[in-house]
Batch of 2 targets.
Target 1
Amino acid sequence: MRSETRLIIVFLALITVINYGKAQTNAAKAGQNDVISSREKVEMLFPGGKTKALILSFDDGMVADNRLVRLMNEYGLIGTFHLNSNKLGTKDYLTKEEVKNIYKGHEVSGHTANHPNLPSLSKIDVIYEVVEDRKELERLTDYPVRGMSYPFGNTNDFVIEAISGLGIEYARTVGDTYNFSIPADFLKWQPTIHLFGKTNYIPNDTANDRRELGQFYQLTTDFLKANSLALFYVWGHSWEYEGPGNKWAEVEKFFKMVSKNPDIFYTTQIGLVDYINAFKNLKFSVDKSMVTNLSSINVFIKMKGKAFNIQAGSTNHIF
Ligand SMILES: [Zn+2]
């Protein structure tokens, strides 16, 4: 080969290398906004990409639940009802025959068979109380009962150890947080606030009522205005609203405030547990550009400021 020819080949090769390099840089620039890294934070959104969720949860299954559930149905609200199966059919409680019909469209959940103070029982008695309740409620509702609330809200490490492995996926205390956080441990689930817990307990104590109602409605307003992920968990007992004062009217006022709001995900407690578990079980590629949703629930996430619907049972290229 002549030396000029060799020189031309080297020159052409050099230009090719330079251009290739430029092309690579341009490609990187063009795709800069869509590049994702394994360090990117994946945030959970509620179904439909919503940022608010509401749980309404009531204990004991007494006859006043008739009125409460009717009111909830009227406002299109769903609830989780924790029942003591051995108390059903006794004075002031619903009958076993009524359970399936009254709570249709809501969740029936456990509250132990006899409403004992669990931390004072032996391990086998704790197990009996929880399993007997599950078993009987499952017979009455015809579906697996997968959660509970602790009688009197009382629990400790001994109780939690005793109920693990019994098919209980969440258990609620009565320790109000007055915030909208999602619990890290479903077996130590603390609600946001007791629905008019102390209101009207003291006859003619209007200062107390004003304070209690003020705090409750302030939290409700804060929830409705919240712009980051917020779970409002309100719990109580229907029988509390039968007492003196105007509690049923207050309950209705509250239901009206939170009903039919397109920004709210209305859910049972187990519904939220299932959703969070589906989110936690998403499978990401190392670079987080792909994700597989193995569950039967569509899961909504936020990454780099964008919302994505990861459809049930699918693999998606999200970046
Ligand atoms: Zn109770």
Target 2
Amino acid sequence: MSTFMDMVYEKARKSPKRVVFPEGNDDRTIEAAVKATSLGVAKAILIGTPSKINETAAGKGFHLEGIDIIDIGNLPNLDVYIKEFFDLRKGKATMEEAAETMKKDVYYGAMMVRKGLADTFVAGAVNTTANVSRAAIYLIGMKPGIKTLSSFFVMILPDKTFGKDGILFYADGGFVIDPTDEQLADITVTTGATYRELMGEEPNIAMLSFSTKGSSKHERIDKVTRALALAKAKDPSLNIDGELQADAALLPSVAARKAPGSPVAGKANVLIFPDLDSGNIAYKLTERLAKAEALGPIYQGTAKPCSDLSRGCKATDILNCAAINVVRLQGSK
Ligand SMILES: CC(C)(COP(=O)(O)OP(=O)(O)OC[C@H]1O[C@@H](n2cnc3c(N)ncnc32)[C@H](O)[C@@H]1OP(=O)(O)O)[C@@H](O)C(=O)NCCC(=O)NCCS
């Protein structure tokens, strides 16, 4: 396991939070909930069919002590939640659609977070990204001042000279395809806040481009500088600079030539990409060519942390997401 995840588990254990796992009928999810509980990183809640969960646990020799099970066939307060969902969607869903939606595991789990019955949810081992993201957007909602759900990656590089001991945050490599100025500003500010939550330190945020400080002229560069101004206005306490090329952001020698005086160039630990093409390509290249470990994509921007998973995930990935969310909750203001 990486040093980063060691740090996450150590912090999570100090103040575990309530994590609801809506996909409780999934074997990997049951394993993750059992391990989260036995490691002391979370108080786990499983939504599913109690007989199925008990059978799976018995078959694998797992102990379910300390884990709450919510029966998907007999969901508490369902009628109240259906009405609340209907009201929230303001005419965009009929009462029948609200009832159909609220009976679904991931929406019910998100509603539990909304109602303060859980602190975070981890789903997506079974549900599609569309369902997980809609549940997050509709029911948990965004942080004050933020309108955009986005995602980030923690990149852990073998070369410890980059970022914070080889740790860099990349955004957005997984969700917002072609951000507007406002969305790019949201992604920037949100990733800065996420870095603070998880690392407990101040981020140095570079807004990347193919140009450094006006070295080229193009509408795409203007988009980055407009988003930079918006991001600085949204959170003046963050150390952000742009537009910067990746080498100027990361290497002090290049920074000294291309961006002298920049508060970020040469020491960036958060890289903001102008669109999903560049963010997704960059994380995969870093993973393969630099032999980095990539953790994510992890959702950010919601009022409470929550996670989407890949449907090909393993129990360890689910457990890691839960632990990361616990630490983000501890660090959130
Ligand atoms: C989130 C998503 C599932 C919603 O899709 P949809 O329900 O078909 O319809 P829309 O895109 O119109 O969005 C529905 C609602 O979500 C909101 N929304 C969409 N994307 C959002 C985002 N990034 N942050 C916050 N809200 C968002 C819309 O404003 C809309 O709100 P409203 O219904 O209250 O007006 C869709 O936008 C999506 O799939 N996004 C991810 C894009 C993607 O595939 N990324 C790459 C993954 S590798």
